[in-house]
UniProtKB/TrEMBL annotation:
The chain crosses the membrane at residues 41-58, 70-90, 96-114, 121-141, 147-167, 188-212, 243-263, 284-312, 324-344. This is Mannose ABC transporter membrane protein /fructose ABC transporter membrane protein /ribose ABC transporter membrane protein. Keywords: Cell membrane, Membrane, Transmembrane, Transmembrane helix. GO terms for molecular function: transmembrane transporter activity. It is found in: Cell membrane. GO terms for cellular component: plasma membrane. Its main location: membrane. It comes from Pseudosporangium ferrugineum. The keyword Cytoplasm does not apply. It is a multi-pass membrane protein. Coiled coil: none annotated. It comes from the Bacteria.
Length: 349
């Protein structure tokens, strides 16, 4: 579909000139459909802005610098996991093991320090390597054994959580027992009344890098092509198995980074967290406008999606809404987002 068609224009040629006229037969809904198909970030951005305005009007404390600092700190781990999840979903896959890899990596880092007596840097590097290896295992099973991503990551989710319990002996490692590097991501920097954590800075830097990588590198174009139509990508000479393996491996590394940030956030490494992170990471991706069918979306939308989750939960909590109903509201948002994605995909069809 040409650019003129996406904008709802009809091209007519007269002599040497080309004129564009608005297709007056196209309904307003169809124009919105075309607009969102070409700019998937607009929908999530509108939802985020409306949510911030609404919660600010309902409760004046919402827009306070201290509360906004809390929202950003709360979504940092989810956002980093959702970044890895975005890469996988862009290739028409899904990763149910994101939270398990993050938590297991954090437990390994903590135990490398407390039980093996390692300094912070080697423990951190080994933790990242283990997370990368877990992602590579998922990639190997998907690309070489040809198992569906859902089945692969459902299986490794169970395996990693079980290993997590074995390695940790179901005990929490306190931040005070680890080198300061392990909890450094939870340290805050005062900026006026706003307090920014180093973990949030790392998160924003990662999003900036992958925004560039997906938009401006051959690897990024291959990721989109693989997710859009894997057979067409193969015919075009793209080594799709290599692309998929690199995506799952990179996602594993990002989950391990999320595990490091999680240690700083909690000031501990606990085997009893992370169960909800799988769903939260997928929720952020879906709310951010990335299609579950692959090939459309991006990391900017995912960052906005993670902020939507954080804003809704924080705003509802300030309003005295029970946790159960907070989950209900987020679930409704996901259903609306998936339905909207189906509607937008009809443009492509």
């Amino acid at each position: 579909m040409g650019q003129a068609e996406l904008l709802g224009l009809t091209m007519t040629t007269t002599g040497t000139s080309t004129d564009f006229e608005v297709d007056r037969h196209e309904s307003p809904a169809a124009r919105v459909q075309h607009l969102l198909h070409g700019n998937p970030v607009l929908g999530p951005l509108a939802v985020l802005i409306v949510a911030i305005i609404a919660f600010s009007l309902v409760n004046t404390r919402f827009f306070a610098a201290a509360n906004l600092s809390l929202v950003l700190a709360q979504v940092t781990v989810i956002a980093v996991l959702a970044l890895g999840q975005t890469l996988v979903i862009l290739t028409a896959g899904i990763d149910l093991a994101a939270g398990a890899i993050a938590v297991f990596s954090s437990i390994l880092m903590a135990n490398f320090c407390t039980k093996a007596g390692m300094p912070g840097v080697p423990a951190l590097i080994l933790g990242f390597a283990c997370g990368t290896a877990m992602g590579a295992l998922n990639g190997f099973l998907v690309t070489r054994i040809k198992l569906p991503p859902f089945i692969v990551t459902l299986g490794t989710l169970t395996i990693f959580f079980s290993l997590n319990a074995v390695v940790s002996e179901s005990e929490t490692v306190r931040g005070a027992d680890m080198p300061s590097l392990m909890t450094w991501t939870g340290t805050t920097i005062p900026i006026g009344g706003f307090r920014l954590t180093y973990g949030s800075i790392i998160m924003l830097a990662l999003f900036a890098y992958f925004f560039y990588a997906l938009k401006s590198t051959a690897w990024g174009r291959h990721v989109y092509a693989t997710g859009d139509d894997i057979e067409a990508a193969r015919l075009a000479g793209i080594r799709t198995n290599r692309v998929l393996f690199s995506v799952y491996t990179t996602a594993g590394l990002l989950y391990a980074v999320g595990g490091w940030i999680l240690i700083g956030r909690l000031a501990s490494a606990s085997p009893n967290v992370g169960v909800d992170y799988n769903l939260d990471s997928i929720t952020a991706v879906v709310l951010g406008g990335t299609s579950l069918f692959g090939g459309r979306g991006g990391v900017l939308g995912t960052l906005i999606g993670a902020l939507i989750v954080g804003v809704f939960r924080n705003g509802l909590q300030l309003g005295g809404v029970e946790v159960v109903w907070q989950g209900f509201a987020i679930g409704l948002l996901v259903l609306v987002a998936v339905s909207l994605d189906q509607w937008i995909r009809k443009v492509k069809a």
